[in-house]
Amino acid sequence: MKKTKTMLKVGVLGAGHLGKIHLRLLNQSTKYTLVGFYDPDAINGKKVAAEFGYEYFDNINTLLDAVDVIDIVTPTLSHFDCAKKAIKKGKHVFIEKPITNTLEEAEELLALELEYGIKGQVGHVERFNPAFMAVKDNIDSPMFIETHRLAEFNPRGTDVPVVLDLMIHDIDAILSVVNSEVKQINASGVSVISNSPDIANARIEFENGCVANLTASRISLKNMRKSRFFQRDAYISVDFLEKKVEVVKMKEAPEVAGDFDMILQNAEGVKKQIYFENPEIPGNNAILDELETFADAINNDTTPVVTLTQGTQALRVALQIIASF
């Protein structure tokens, strides 16, 4: 595979389930040179190194000194400490979602990002889901949004409430298309298996009148990741799991309708024609894309797709939802 000239030296912190995926993709990438990884569990670190051939560093600082970029794929509780160490050494940081465990930690990272002049990106991978990317430009001033993110139970991830584990994906996607401040949040959550809530529902009202109704569960019998956006003269549905979209739009009805035209008439006699758009959904690897667009942002000195500020905003809303349980 041909490597580009501006290869960035990258290291990974954390070699768990997701960390191993990041290691494999970074090793394949044409934009990074994978230097190695650090995991505090030396037994796991050596096992991963032996199995896949990546270089294991038994000291986090040694790895940080050897790279340009650090990819933090550790449990949420350690995101802040890892990122702070890296930023203070002048390294660019990619941090898995949620950005940190507390808002205070996230805000300190924002200050450090500014102080040290580095770039940061948060791993809100659904922004790179091909279905969402195919319709994002069609989503214009939505006034009602409904999301369902349901997952079968998996002990991995239960160290945080379902809002930070699952719902935060939809919070971030919503904040990226609603150009308005949050006005009010009402929510409820229930702990069923874990010590933290396993199922949650939130209603977010925005200053511009938009309302978003979000449901997340990690104790469902089947997986579902769907979002629906309702706006003037359009309905857009995104299936993040199946990578499918539905775009239904309305326009002024023609004076003489064709045999196959779908025409609706309201109580005032206004006629609208319904039509469907089928945007092309390209195949992609969303995790590889988010990592490589971060490399582009560093090399071209542009703004990352999901900034640390946006990751902080998503965390702020998620914590407000948890606080209102």
What would you note in describing this structure?
This protein has 325 residues and is an alpha/beta fold. The chain has nine helices and 15 strands. Helix 5 (103-116) packs antiparallel against helix 9 (308-323).
Topology of this protein?
Elements: E1 8-13, H1 17-28, E2 32-38, H2 42-52, E3 56-57, H3 60-65, E4 69-72, H4 79-88, E5 92-96, H5 103-116, E6 120-123, H6 130-135, E7 144-150, H7 162-177, E8 182-190, E9 199-206, E10 211-217, E11 224-231, E12 234-239, E13 244-252, E14 262-265, E15 271-277, H8 286-300, H9 308-323
Parallel strand pairs: 1-2, 1-4, 2-3, 4-5, 5-6, 7-10
Antiparallel strand pairs: 7-11, 8-9, 9-10, 11-12, 12-13, 13-15, 14-15
Helix pairs in contact: 4-5, 5-9, 7-9
Low-pLDDT residue intervals, each spanning 5 or more residues:
none
Number of domains: 2
Indicate the CATH class of the largest domain.
Answer: Alpha Beta
Query: Which of globular, elongated, flat, extended, rod-shaped describes the shape?
Result: globular
Rg of Cα set: 22 Å
Summing up helix and strand content along with how strands pair, one would put the structural category as alpha/beta
Order of helices and strands: EHEHEHEHEHEHEHEEEEEEEEHH
Helical content band = 25-40%
Number of helices: 9
CATH architecture of the largest domain: 2-Layer Sandwich
- Measure the end-to-end span: 51 Å
Biggest β-sheet strands, sense, barrel: 9 strands, mixed
Quote the beta fraction: 25-35%
State the fourth-level CATH superfamily of the largest domain: Dihydrodipicolinate Reductase, domain 2
- Strand order in the sheet with the most strands: 8-9-10-7-11-12-13-15-14
Tell me how many strands there are: 15
Give the mean pLDDT.
94
CATH fold-level label of the largest domain = Dihydrodipicolinate Reductase, domain 2
InterPro entries: Gfo/Idh/MocA-like_OxRdtase_N, Gfo/Idh/MocA_Oxidoreductases, GFO_IDH_MocA-like_dom, NAD(P)-bd_dom_sf
Pfam families: GFO_IDH_MocA (PF01408), GFO_IDH_MocA_C3 (PF22725)
GO molecular function, one term: nucleotide binding
